[in-house]
Amino acid sequence: MKCPASTYRIQLSPEFTFEDLKGILDYLEQLGASTIYSAPFFKARKGSTHGYDITDPFLLNPEIGKLETFKVIGEWLRKNKMSWLQDIVPNHMAYDGSNKWLKNILELGPESPYYGYFDIDWQEEKVMAPFLGDPLDEVLQNKELTISLNKSGFSLKYYDNAYPLSARSYGAIFAEADQKDWQEKFSGQRQNWKELKTSFLKEVQENEDLKDSIAAAIRKINATEAELKKILKLQYFEPVHWKKTEEKINYRRFFTINGLICLKMEKQEVFRTYHGFIKELVDEGLINGLRIDHIDGLFDPPGYLEHLREMVGKDYYIIIEKILEWDEKLPKHWPVQGTSGYGFLAEVNQLFTQSNADELFTENYHNINPVKEEYEDLVYHQKLFILWERMGGEFNNLWQLAFQLELLTSKENNTNHKNALGAFLAAFPVYRIYPEEFPLKKKQKKIIEQAYQTALEHGQHLEAELGLLKELFLGEANKDRENMFHFLQRCQQYTGPLAAKGVEDTTFYIFNRLISHNEVGDSPENFGLSVPGFHQRMEMRLNDFPLSINATATHDTKRGEDARMRINVLSELGREWFKKVEEWKGICEDMDQEFSPDMNERYFIFQMLIGSFPFELEFGQEFVERSEAYLQKALREAKVHSSWAEPNTDYETAVFDFLKCLLREEKFLSSFLPFQKKVMAYGVLKSLGQCLIKVTAPGIPDIYQGTELWDLSYVDPDNRRPVDYELRKKYLSEISGLGLEDTREYLQNLKKRYSSGKIKMYCLFKALKERRQFPGVFEQGEYLALKLKEPLRDKVLAYVRKFQDHWYLAVVPVMVTDLFNEQLQPKEQFLDEPVLELPNEFPGNWKNLYTEEILETSEKWTVNQLFGSYPVVLLTNKY
What we know:
Structural class: alpha/beta
Strand content: 5-15%
């Protein structure tokens, strides 16, 4: 298996192409990355900045580059012993007129070879096209919907959207144009549809009379609402207002995004066709590993993975995007190397949070925002809101499916039974389960029982109805077992989106106790992880999925990895923090500002500024604009005072004005900036620890593009801003060219000028170099937790990675405010404090890879010896 030693995530797009990537390959190799980890690069919607809206899985995106260029990159990677990990999207494609398969379906309907490829309910013989800004009648009255002819054929245009007209429409248009010959040609079977359409398009370009008559017919149809409606009746799609999907929908979409239509990947033909080009790239050695996006959306995730493993072979690196709850485990029998790293992100994030501050933060947050419900209740009600108000169409489909499968009878077709189904779905404690057969596995039964109990707590009057649903989900009702199993699997395709939209995209913007934990894979209901607890989780990781990705930032994370560490510092400064919050609350009330957001939103803004404020302690217009864009998204996701469905732009503008007023207020800045300076310094220490753990703990370290320097970004699209690689090349050249004799002075300068981010790049570079040179130690080596001496036992993490006679020892301060000062130096009272004593069987001498210093096992290593020159420690016995 070509296993990565480390990965570097690149967001390929029209703004960063293959040619741009070629320009940084030498830099990435020198940095220590072994594998390019690419965002989807198949043909997507024009201008796509993320690549998850694929329109043709058989082609590379021409806006990114040509296959020939990719092959040149592949050859370079081979020569330099590097590899390529590719993100693929089997769950969905773009619902777009440029989607090759969808276009064929809209033209040919049931005669299309792709008719059964998408998850569409064709009972009404038309798929909804929910892209109108108003109801259809209004759009027609306003003449916003028109027929047009372009190089691809006839289409229905609505502003920038264009959808191909059905083949049977051509005859009607030809009849209007009095083109009997063409009308007759298009009236037969569709086997030669492509050739027939091509011949017509060719002639219409060459024959002026034909072109004029067709143009006249189009004008006549567009001029008359009745004529246009006749054409609409002939389509295999139905244009509707985009909000209609909140109550009705006849295709499965990705989450609540109308513009992403899901595939029936459980069908062998769909799997084989979709993966055809991917397999070619795999067989050619251009792609050396796969990352599977949104595995939870598939009807049968384990079955999909079995087919995928069969396609690529047993010795091939596969990871999946999977969000696990805190105590949830990935099924060990799945044929994958692990996940894309959200679980690791959560564990490290919790490690750097002071768990003893839980009660203090909870009490103060309740005073700031006197909530009427606990976090779990908030999650439940937000999921219910999403189900009824945003996914009402999907919910109705599940409800109707229960009757179609004869699992419910006409007497159960009532409000109580439907409410019970909604309650059960909202109560699922995990994204989903993966049933393979009845009877379900013990853990799966336990999850269904948990969902039942939670739903029952919120609806005692639904006990009988919930009991019936529990029997259906467990396969224990007196109904057809195949139908019960199908219903369970179908429901599981929606519990994941329900959790994502109800929790990550709603609750995470409402519950603001400590927003560093309002993060993908993490949960704000958890507050800190002890050092022994972290060791235990790393030992499990090594045992279960040692090649899983270690991520700390992704394209999906809610804020930058270093912004999170800053906010985590607040957990160590709790009392001082809440005094500041109270002080700033008073300043806000005294500001010359008519409007002020509610206190929960102000508290969110305070934390936002702590995480994102520039290191220079100065800000410009760009920072303000980025912050406003982020706040707009936060307000709309929270759905309290504004939303995407019903934007309250007046409220949003008032919040932006409040932010600008706050950042101009001298009283606020004179209080905020000194505190921010302190938090920044301690955040640096936590960030360096996060870097070192990511590279040396069990798993494969991933660096998200640009985060080798400080990452204070907001949620997407802010985290996809262009990366200044020229600056990074300059810094890396300086670091890699450092002489031994200059190390001590250089490290002192790094600490004094930490705002540049060089101190972080130095940390990563030194660790990645070892990881790349000796991958076996980290892929196969033991993980040995080390016990530290009091009073540092709960403040410092230390562990060994050992393979045969090769050892590495990492020491990382996790609670930093007691131990260090704001100059990143250990406090004087701790300098001579012993940190740890190593057993005699450990190697005799060690080299500190950051400082070049030599330590002997026989010594008692003190705080000053370990952290005096550099805040984190990586030792090796081989030097």
